[in-house]
Amino acid sequence: MKLVFKLAAILLTAVVVYLAVTFAQVWRAARNDEARAADAIVVFGTAQYDGVPSPVLAARLDHAIALYEKRLAPVIVVTGGSRPGDQFTEATASANYLIRRGVPDDDVLREVSGTSSWQSLAAAANFLADRSIDNVLLVSDPFHSFRIRAMASELGLEGRSSPTRTSPIRGMTEARYMARETVAVAVGRVVGFRRQASIEDVVTSRA
Length: 207
Prior knowledge:
alpha/beta, five-stranded parallel sheet
């Protein structure tokens, strides 16, 4: 019995240390901007309201515009499908926002089917591969940086994160997202981010 308790204590300690290290990596990535020349900028979608990007999505798009205007990449990929009842996809709302702010339509590529970060990035990776593009800048909120970079690597992309610094997600809300990302990264590195996304889809569909 003592051996069982000892092994359980060792296992618990290992899990705690693993989560602590993962949190540190997520936190560090959130504060690091890897912006440099690439072949495309990929913007991760989030909520839009009847074709109008939410403040969180607008902050991501504004950052992508700044990177584009610095000529760090010739095209911007906008991602995200629609939810039940939506008239617009996240990608369509994002594309319209970019175009209204001076980005040529020809320089905006749309991924309109994904309903999760993995699905959107996987779909984008497919059509980028047709264009021989694998070097990308990944734009999202800071807390998201480590996971999307890891997902890009699993999908065969050379991805570097350049998070927006104007997101309205701050304070305790940001802390909760950081904690959630820590768990997502910890699990994803063990089972693979593709498998993790599949598990999440099953759980969500049964909810």
